[in-house]
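Aggregate trends can hide what the representation actually does to any particular protein. For completeness, the protein is quoted in full, as a sequence line and a line of structure tokens.
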Amino acid sequence: MKKYISLYLVLILFCSCKNEIQTEPIISSVEIETILEDSISIRAIWVGEKELWYAGNDGKYGAIQLENFQKFKGKIIKDSLALEFRSLAKTDSATFVLNVGNPAYLYKISNDKSHTQLVYTESHEKVFYDSMQFLDATFGIAMGDPIENCLNVIVTKDGGNSWSKIPCENLPKIIEGEAAFAASNTNLIVRGNSIFMVSGGKKSRCFVSIDKGNSWQVYETPIIQGESMTGIFTADFYDAKIGFIAGGNYENPSSNKQNKAITFDGGKTWKLVADGSGFGYASCVQFVPNSKGKSLICVGKTGIHYSNDFGENWKLLDAMDDLYTIRFLNDSVAYAAGKNKIVKLILKSKEAIK
């Protein structure tokens, strides 16, 4: 009798283990299709289920229907200035674009693209906005380089119709030479109720708020820093806990030392990964959807790279080195933009046993 019971238990354990074996898609290659060619530098895109919005230099912005790639192109001219839009955010009711440089102009564009409204202006010799995001339908936030002894942060609480500055006394102090990089509209990330800002230059840190910017915590990172063009250039968070930062030295783009780090506790502590391997200077990093935070894709000066182990190891998917920013439509399709183009990335995968 004991013999049969033991055999029965073995069979149960075998079936149970077999049921726990799952397959996970591992990206092995990428197919690239150009969907826009224009004389434009694009560092800010937004990808929705049916539509992609972009903004770039020379006051240019636009939208592409993802079903048929029908295109809309717009241009904003303000006082004969050639505005360079590097921040873009979207709500259900409108699209918002924000330029770098002085003066700063923040525009609201209606969903039907028929109306453009200037909703915020700021003049200062040091003004330079880097990134903009919305937490929900009413609360939005944009951040930029310091004009005093803190990062320059503005917020909206009415869906983008009006914006106001967070006073410096309510923000963490920065050190001389600490700023941010408008590389891909990814210096500012929102996940749930958490807001993350990252800095670079002489100091490269992570700023976290869980109460819509009323209070902040600041955490050190191990990313290379200390010079004006070093530090974090891009960040992404899979959720409120798992995050990834990347960057490096813009003036030495092939260097892959101290330019990648991951957190599992919401930015409090960071661990260097792939130190001395993988990509060099990074312009934009994004988590692959539905990957539990394991999979990431990066674009930058050394090509398109992919990791499936929380950034520990990286595979070169393509050597294209003029893409600045990337966003996912789903776990197998992404869109990236850069110098004079927007491309569709179709990610090919193979099944791997976990």
